[in-house]
Structures are given as structure tokens and as C-alpha cells.
Amino acid sequence: DNVSRAQNLLHQAVVGGAEIAALPECFNSPYGVSNFAKYAEPIPGETTEALSKMAVSNGVYVVGGSIPERDQEGLFNTTTVFAPNGDLIAKYRKMHLFDIDIPGKITFKESDALMPGSGFTHFTTPFATIGLGICYDIRFPELAQIYAHKGCELLIYPGAFNMTTGPAHWELLQRARALDNQLFVATVSPARDPDASYVAWGHSMVVNPWGTVIASAEADEKIVYADLDLGLLHDVRRRVPVLVQKRLDLYQESTPRL
Ligand SMILES: NC(=O)CC(=O)C(=O)O
Asked: Is the dihedral of CA 240, 244, 245, 250 positive or negative?
């Protein structure tokens, strides 16, 4: 049901002018530790075959949100990207697993079911060079900075924040990553289902390199469109040249004191 819903919405997005279309985190299954094993698929598998066909039949790049992936090592939360000819051109496994405990609000331990990925993944399209993260990954500025240093102009994070962290941090983190790195940031969330065991915040969004939200959904299902003006990215980088002013010679990796 979810895959055919994604098929229809993706087609609508392309009719509306999209050339790169992205789906939400865990778009083919409910997001929850007890669901991952039940819904996990190999790659290639049923869902990724459908994503490849969606790319071909619509002639677009498809960033396939994420799905629970099963391979010999275990389960992962994985994004796949398909080119308009249907080829798998990128695969990214969520690197930072969502393990948090806010008593009375939200306790979630993704690592009870999933393994973390350890590979950075970016890819180039005729429109932009794009880096991938998934949801909780957006909290880690280093990941975004590494992609910026690799030449990414857009970061896409399929993500499902929740009713506690969503209102507090979702937009703030996107604007922060966009501003830190002077690039576009897009997030793609499932719409809110108040009856689900994990209630997603929704609010898929696109932020520009100046830190401005240029397109946004609310809680309900919606296709969010944005034009990426790379001229703005270069302009912001020229006028506020923090990327070349960084004192990389002085910043040393250190272990946080907790
Ligand atoms: N679901 C996530 O991976 C992350 C999240 O909800 C948060 O960081 O808050």
C-alpha cells in the first residue's frame, strides 16, 4: 500500500515539475524498533525494484527515502538513489542511530534492532551534487561539513522526527546545517498519523544556503516543491566566505568530556 502510494505521489510530483524526487524515512513500513525486522527487505528487493521502475517511468532521479534493509550482517536503515535510467547510483546507511531517552516523552533505541552504517555517500546529478543523511544524522554537524567539503550543494535527509523533538529541533537543525555549510538542505518526513505507535512531526522542508525556509509542508501529506538556485549558493559563499576562512589548522578532533 505504501509503495503504491509513493508511486502515485511521485508521479504527481513529476507532473508538477520535479526533476529530483525524494521520499520519507522508512516510507514502506511503520517506523518502530519492533517493526524493522518484520518489514526489512534485501537490496535489490521488492521496494527498491519499484523505486527503480518509478525512476524510469517518470524519467527522474529518485531518492528512495529509506527502508529497513536486511543483509548478511544484519538490519540497516538505508536510502537508495536511482537515476532516470533505473540504475542504483547511491546507497547510504544511517550512520548515527536514534537512541534517546526523554522520560515521559520519548524513549527510542534504534540500535536494539539496527546496525549503523559507516560510509559517506554523495552523488552528482546535472542539477546539483547531493549528500545523504537520515533523520538523527542531521544532529551531527560533522557529517554535513564533510559533505560540504566534498562539494555537495544539497543535503537530503529523509527523516521522521516526533512530537517532542520535532517542534523543538526539526527546523532549527536544518537551518543550522544549511547556514554552517552554505548549501541547500531538504528533509522529507512521513505525514503525521496520530494513531501510529510513533507519531511523526511531518513538516518536510527545504532551506536555502542563507538559512531561509523556502518550502515547507505542515503535518499532513503534501508534495513540497523547491527550485534550487545554485547562483544563490555561490553568492552567499562569496559574500560571507566562512568556508575559506575556517581555521582547519587549529581545529583538532577531541573526545567530548561528559
Ligand atoms: N527519528 C530519528 O532518527 C531522529 C529524531 O527523531 C530526533 O533526532 O529527534
From this structure: positive
> What is the value of ipTM here, to two decimals?
0.98
Grid cell, residue 59, equals 524519467
Q: Would you say the pTM of this structure is higher than 0.90?
A: yes
252 within domain boundaries = no
Q: Which residue has the cell 553568492?
A: 235
* Domain membership flag for residue 257: no
237 belongs to a structural domain? yes
Give the residue, by CA position, lying nearest to ligand 1 atom 4.
136
Give 167 Cα–ligand 1 centroid separation in angstroms: 12
CA of 160 to the centre of ligand 1 (A): 6
Give dist(CA 224, CA 216) in Å, integer: 6
Q: Where are the alpha helices (DSSP H) in 33-183?
A: 36-39, 46-58, 141-149, 165-181
Give the CATH number of the domain where residue 208 resides. 3.60.110.10
